[in-house]
Amino acid sequence: MTLSNHRQGILIFWLATFYCLKIARIALAGDAAAPIGDPVLEPPTLRCLGAYWLIRGDDNQNAQIQFDYRKLGADSWKKGPPLFRVERRTTPYLDQGGKPRPPSVVQIPSDGSLFAGSLLLLEPDTEYEMRLRLIDPDGGNAEKLLRSRTIAEPLAPADAIVCHVVPGAGGGSGTSSDPFRGIDAAQKSARPGDLFLLHGGTYAGMIRITHSGEIGKPIIWRGAGDGEATLDGKCPMDHLTGALIDAPGAHDVWFENLSIANAYNLIRAHEAARIVVRRCHLHHALYGVVATQNQSHNLGGFFISDNLMEGIMPWPTTQQQWNDLPESRAVWIGGSGHVVCYNRIHHWKDGTDTADGPICCAIDFHNNEISEMFDDGSEMDGSERNTRNFLNRYTNTLTGVSLQPVYGGPVYVFRNVIYNCQTEAFKLHNSPSGGVLIHNTILKNGAALQLHTNAPVTNCISRNNLYIGTAGRAIDFSPQMIHCDFDYDGFGGFSGPVFIKWNANAYATPAEVHSRAPIERRCVALDPAHLFANGLAAPEDPKKAYDFKLIDPRLSSASQAVDAGEILPGFNDDYHGNAPDLGALEAGTELPHYGPRQ
Fold this sequence. Notes:
By secondary structure, the protein is mainly beta.
């Protein structure tokens, strides 16, 4: 080799080395996480605050985002649930009709990941500081501070202008001695900050809301309390049509202490914002409150609480009735920032449902008493992220809570009681991704946890739940379960030669699951006869209407479910003993308040 050739060889060697190192650095950079912009806060609700953050890189998926919080002015931070890693997908989610459903708000780059999560069971009307810390062993750590305030329950302004209304066909000035005669007459003069007192009687006919309030100055339609004020659509039961109250695009309009009945939809409020429905009696309809259209992206901020919602559907139903009966929902709502709480709901097809987009996030269903649903106790279907279903009691339903599908999550189903659902406690159909099932108590006839669908399920979590049946497998799942993490759950009332069926594999006993199954390595097998303090047992007859008031799932202090759970910051910080108890309620605690508050 000549000197020139020797130099060329050295140059080629160093160039090759340089490019190899560069390629290695690029590969390593793919594992390092880096934020894409700042974290984003979701609309606040009464008990929860949510956020999401886009991250680039982290191909080996070992980054975490810790979510700490404290009341404004407090010294020490508390740990919240870490942000949930949303599944990174190369194809869009499919809606229930099988059509592509791309994200409506968050566009995730091909090399990026979305992390999202919520702080749960916060105090209302309280300002919190939040600290999000991105931690990645491969580099790219970051920290961001945020601040947000949970909402307060809506209060009428002290300086509201009081006007009086009685049934009639026009006229009046709104004074107590000369009230408006009829709602149409009152609405013609409505201004932000007006409080209309509807005196006892029947207000017949459909109502279209044409006047909106302002933030801090709602227009309030309230029963005066001198007899039932009934808004009556006058539709016969065999021909329910129209919307009794139609409020498209309305905002800052409240309905309180009213009886609303006899129409297909009782309150229809598409594209609306900051609608309050409180202490009303909704009955004789197929839909109670419906607000699903959101092309303007303004649909948000409803507060639906302390209502009695009585449907017209039979329970239980025959298979023929189930096929023939029309759709029926007490609450069906899309958008964001809604709270549906403390309602008594019975005899609809579904109780409380979210609606597929555009936008379905930051919605809370909590402390509702729901029974006699011939389909789902509640649907979280169509949720993208940070929707929350917690502290509800579901009795006598076909299924408990549906997530068919959810688009990435997290969708939290947390500390609910489900008693006598006839089929699946959690309906994970249509390829959901991102369901988070934590600290629920399920008692049902037959197999406690079953799922029969052909579509795969991805990226779902089950922790610290109680699944109590009467016979059959503890887990009987037919679909492919991909990147799903089920553990620390308790099972009772199972029988037969197979304890768990998972991804087409059968595990005969709890001991076999503990030793070699990909899930539930720390599950607990329980004796149902000694589980609950008051002797509560799984239902013997799934077609019987059990009294919801008698469903008390508090544990016996001697139960094996006590101290058997995993410590999960933000979910069970107030546990007693050595570890959290399994199920919705710790032993010795008080029952939550379900349904309307007096």
